[in-house]
Design brief:
Layout lengths: L4 E5 L11 H10 L4 E4 L12 H5 L7 E2 L2 E10 L11 H4 L4 E5 L12 H12 L6 E2 L11 H10 L3 E5 L2 H4 L3 H15 L3 E4 L12 H9 L12 H10 L5
Length: 240
Amino acid sequence: MKIIADTHCHTIASGHAYSTLEEMAKVAKERGLYAIAVTDHCLKMGNAPDELHFENLKILPKYIQGVRLLRGVEANVCNYEGDLDLTERISGTVEWVIASMHPQVLDTNLSDPEICTKAWLNIAKNPTVNVIGHSGQEFFRFDYEKVIPEFGRNGKLVEINNSSFKVRPGSRENCKAIAKICKKYSVPIVVNSDSHFSALVGKFDEALDLLNEIDFPEDLVVNANKERFQKYLVSRGIEL
């Protein structure tokens, strides 16, 4: 399986990442990617850029280094009601929205599977969200059987995040369980690097190994085929 787009990438604008947009696009081109999404952290994350940063993404060209650049944001789940830190100024500019839970934003002492389930069910209904980010975290377990079909029904792509296996302890088995349920209910996924350094753009080895273990169908991996990925973009009103 070959992934043709890395739709979760962070630049120096995130404050704890180490490469520029140009550097990341250069590596994406070298690795034969069709597209990348620049998805710096939204407002509630420490050292995140401000609204003007996201609003000004409109000045960026559609292609850098011959790679389609999706103007995006990784929005933070702000509470267990499922509210996000997206403002109208941000959502009016970006093309690609990831919704993620982060222990730096949410109080993990309050988390339990029941309230995380409620939050994700509310996010499933949010029309601005494209991707459910790194949802296999042990901190934020939820009822996979109940929620994942709702992601599918609402057009959300479930992310299998390559970085989770390194930086989020306990994620691998949770991600495997999530992937199995996506397979069971034919819920589309994306495979992403969540790169915070240019050398990691397009690195998906551990995520792909996991999918191979469970014989995950390639036709459910939206970013494993250029035509399939472009069809998804068009369905969301995103220009090619």
